[in-house]
Amino acid sequence: MNAEKSPFQRTYAIQIKRCGEMARKLRFFRDQMSKAGLAPTARSATQAITSLDDLEVKLGDLEAELVEINANGEKLQRSYNELAEYKLVLQKAGEFFNSALSSAEAHHREYASNQGGESLETPLLSEQETFADASKQVKLGFITGLVPRDKSMAFERILFRATRGNVFLKQATVDEPVIDPVSGEKVEKNVFVVFFSGERAKNKILKICEAFGANRYAFTEDLSKQSQMITEVSGRLSELQTTIDAGLVHRGNLLQAIGEQFEQWNLLVRKEKAIYHTLNMLSIDVTKKCLVAEGWSPVFATKEIQDALHRATHDSNSQVDSIFQVLRTREMPPTYFRTNKFTSAFQEIVDAYGVAKYQEANPGVFTIVTFPFLFAVMFGDWGHGICLLLATLYFIIREKKLSSQKLGDIMEMTFGGRYVIMLMALFSIYTGLIYNEFFSVPFELFAPSAYVCRDPACRDATTVGLIKARDTYPFGVDPAWHGSKADLYHVMIYMFLSPTDELGENELFPGQKTVQIVLLLLALVSVPWMLLPKPFLLKMQHDRHHGESYTPIPEAEESLQSEANHDSHGHEEFEFSEVFVHQLIHTIEFVLGAVSNTASYLRLWALSLAHSELSSVFYEKVLLLAWGYNNIIILIVGIIIFICATVGVLLVMETLSAFLHALRLHWVEFQNKFYEGDGYKFFPFSFALLDYEEE
What we know:
- It is a multi-pass membrane protein.
- This protein is 58% helix and 6% strand.
- The chain is mostly helical and 695 residues long.
């Protein structure tokens, strides 16, 4: 109901907006807890908030406090990072100035010692005469800071080009990465000192520093002030670190307190939002005192719904009871199948193809047996089936614990289909016993082989030289037949190509030739039987009723309306050619589909053969080959390779391949014969179906 109204025009739009805002705050708390390495606790020892209004106020206060703590922490951390960089600049640049001063003093002493006697190297003008005029002295400025190390070479080149080489750059490498105050990330940097002359060069250097993300810091040439400034910066760093640690402790305690009640708050908000979202689909009557709702419910749940409405009336102390009335409608009801944890996975296989219409036959009932059986036909090996069963039993035994955990995508799908895989494994063990294959090796499980050799020359033979000396093997394939030739496909193909030929050794049972010819004739007769009777029967019905029908004379207005709608509602003439062509198309489609679907079932034989051959290759070419070397190391390596190949290829890839082929056989060859699957699911309102993540 209320389909004509937008979400913002509905009655409880404000309440949904409030719940959405509270959900946003809870997501913010979850992100903050995740960054701090905390997880919400399952239960809370404190009393939970039951009022939505109280919870809204509580969440607002907590968000404001947490945002303020984060902002203060970021400011303090940025100040700390800036002071840490400033300390590095004071140390590295101070070392440069100290070394430059020491070099200048040594040069001055050397120059003073050479003033006693003149030589060819003595300057024409003394130092005092040269620098006597203060107006002619050149004053150099300098800028210090840090630049990212990966940009230092480009930084130096741009400085040189922008000032035409009229700068002097000195860089020193910082050993450990430093945290950048702006980005907050660890970056390898260099301390630099740029000497320049003039304001124009200074402006250029400042712009270049800005472009390269170089942080600049003030520096003094006075050695005494340098040591004093380093001491002050170290003290401020210690104070800031103490303050930051205290803030982190306070933030951690706040997040821990939030985590203790987070699940309860989150559940309350999601429930309230779901309730208001459902109430928005209800309409208010003209008195604006009651809500009217229309919906679908299972017939068996009618009494339960009425009892729940009576309990709600009693618990809310309402003076008027709720009214529950069954409506008659022509709308197509949704489809609901009652499933449990065992049958739900099989129903999901069918629903992935399409949801059944209301009261349509459900293929899921047959799928419980046919799906694992067709899989097992392609995966027939009772050794592999036991491995698959053991892996599935792990999920089934621990299903209570695993169902409450968040698994990966692949593990989640495997866990959801654990009972499907269990039946697949059990059927694989059954067909494996029929095939008599245990990792491709036959065993005399139920009785000795019925065949023996005539003489020692046929000891390794599978057909030639064997004679039947005992009763027929009681269950499955006789071990002596393992490795013999499978001519079933030969029989199936030549049943159509040469139906009258003698079968010879390919005869499976007495009278097989007669049965094949009868089946082939029935298949041929069915084609004209589908094509011819329907068009002629329809023509006979049309000829019989032609001219016998009549209609009452319409009134004037009805006559005009009938003439206007004649094109859409008038009777069309019977065209025998169109009906015949239409039936011909259906016949061709059915014949081609029958041939295609019948041939498609050959995949059962092909994958069964591929599985058996792969298993034989791994057994003979890996395990037996390693065993033949009589070397313990080679044997261990061979066993490891055999296990990896068996698990990776046969138990994973072959399982997935057989699963997909069985899925195709059900969807294409089985379900499209009778199943339309154009219905829609029944989704009742339930708190248990609420997703953890907000939509």
